Amino acid sequence: MEGPTVGMERFKAYGARVGVWLQGGLDLSVRMKVVVGPDPSLVYRPDVDPDVAKDKGSFRNYTSGPLLDRVLATYKLMHTRQTVDFVRKKHAQFGGFSYKKMTIMEAVDMLDGLVDESDPDVDFPNSFHAFQTAEGIRKAHPDKDWFHLVGLLHDLGKVLALAGEPQWAVVGDTFPVGCRPQASVVFCDSTFQDNPDLQDPLYSTELGMYQPHCGLENVLMSWGHDEYMYQMMKFNKFSLPPEAFYMIRFHSFYPWHTGGDYRQLCSARDLAMLPWVREFNKFDLYTKCPDLPDVDDLRPYYQGLIDKYCPGVLRW
């Protein structure tokens, strides 16, 4: 059986051949910077556990550093093009879930071909991160098997990148569209100037098109792997608890769960779910380490969870 180190090299070589081009808005040299280097949207995180991060300050440095150009370029595209109209079109495009039919494990295997270079310290396929996150949760919460499965599932929406979607419409911190972006949104003051929604009186206020405390279930989130996977789970009727759906949908909504913003849109239920989302984020991203899990050894356990909560061939 091929060991994890050999497997990593094979997957890295394959992943190096996978390119997802950002479409339009940048010249070729900038597009090369954005695609080839680390995924900018996941590098600078606002609440890194100091016991895990090598240098906590590096995750909050938005003014200098080797990744700054591509970080800014990706968020500029995202914050310009993620509009109410764009998000509604993506819901219509993918809401029928006719992209592909496959099992959960087949989706995990697809991520073997996606080397997510979002972390400056490690470089291995996203599928390993799925198992690492799940195993971190399993160790800390041995009695909550559904929570273990969330760790495996949470980034599977990134199959959109392998379907040809641009990075700014797949990865990155999420935010509500249809209202003015709040202060803790990454690059809030420098990347939204060309977003047409902010020229619309309906969408440019703090509440925008929403009612106070309408609940996040009634909010149109920016489009990406979180929202897509959440909608896919609903469509396929996963038998997971509500906490799992919240974790999947909002794990990249850092302005909410870490920045403390958008409380004016939250219902009491959202605030009750917030600790669960924060608990999940302890294990997302920062469980990554060079000691890769023995995926073949772990598969039977997680296949059992899949058979329990989301079995069979699913529509994506």
TrEMBL record:
<feature type="binding site">
    <location>
        <position position="155"/>
    </location>
    <ligand>
        <name>Fe cation</name>
    </ligand>
</feature>
<keyword id="KW-0597">Phosphoprotein</keyword>
<feature type="binding site">
    <location>
        <position position="284"/>
    </location>
    <ligand>
        <name>Fe cation</name>
    </ligand>
</feature>
<feature type="binding site">
    <location>
        <position position="158"/>
    </location>
    <ligand>
        <name>substrate</name>
    </ligand>
</feature>
<comment type="pathway">
    <text>Polyol metabolism; myo-inositol degradation into D-glucuronate; D-glucuronate from myo-inositol: step 1/1.</text>
</comment>
<feature type="binding site">
    <location>
        <position position="154"/>
    </location>
    <ligand>
        <name>Fe cation</name>
    </ligand>
</feature>
<dbReference type="GO" id="GO:0005506">
    <property type="term" value="F:iron ion binding"/>
</dbReference>
<feature type="binding site">
    <location>
        <position position="60"/>
    </location>
    <ligand>
        <name>substrate</name>
    </ligand>
</feature>
<feature type="binding site">
    <location>
        <position position="225"/>
    </location>
    <ligand>
        <name>Fe cation</name>
    </ligand>
</feature>
<dbReference type="InterPro" id="IPR007828">
    <property type="entry name" value="Inositol_oxygenase"/>
</dbReference>
<feature type="binding site">
    <location>
        <position position="129"/>
    </location>
    <ligand>
        <name>Fe cation</name>
    </ligand>
</feature>
<keyword id="KW-0560">Oxidoreductase</keyword>
<dbReference type="GO" id="GO:0005737">
    <property type="term" value="C:cytoplasm"/>
</dbReference>
<feature type="binding site">
    <location>
        <begin position="116"/>
        <end position="118"/>
    </location>
    <ligand>
        <name>substrate</name>
    </ligand>
</feature>
<keyword id="KW-0963">Cytoplasm</keyword>
<comment type="similarity">
    <text>Belongs to the myo-inositol oxygenase family.</text>
</comment>
<dbReference type="GO" id="GO:0019310">
    <property type="term" value="P:inositol catabolic process"/>
</dbReference>
<feature type="binding site">
    <location>
        <begin position="172"/>
        <end position="173"/>
    </location>
    <ligand>
        <name>substrate</name>
    </ligand>
</feature>
<feature type="binding site">
    <location>
        <position position="251"/>
    </location>
    <ligand>
        <name>Fe cation</name>
    </ligand>
</feature>
<dbReference type="GO" id="GO:0050113">
    <property type="term" value="F:inositol oxygenase activity"/>
</dbReference>
<dbReference type="Pfam" id="PF05153">
    <property type="entry name" value="MIOX"/>
</dbReference>
<feature type="modified residue" description="Phosphoserine">
    <location>
        <position position="64"/>
    </location>
</feature>
<keyword id="KW-0479">Metal-binding</keyword>
<protein>
    <recommendedName>
        <fullName>Inositol oxygenase</fullName>
        <ecNumber>1.13.99.1</ecNumber>
    </recommendedName>
</protein>
<feature type="binding site">
    <location>
        <begin position="251"/>
        <end position="252"/>
    </location>
    <ligand>
        <name>substrate</name>
    </ligand>
</feature>
<keyword id="KW-0408">Iron</keyword>
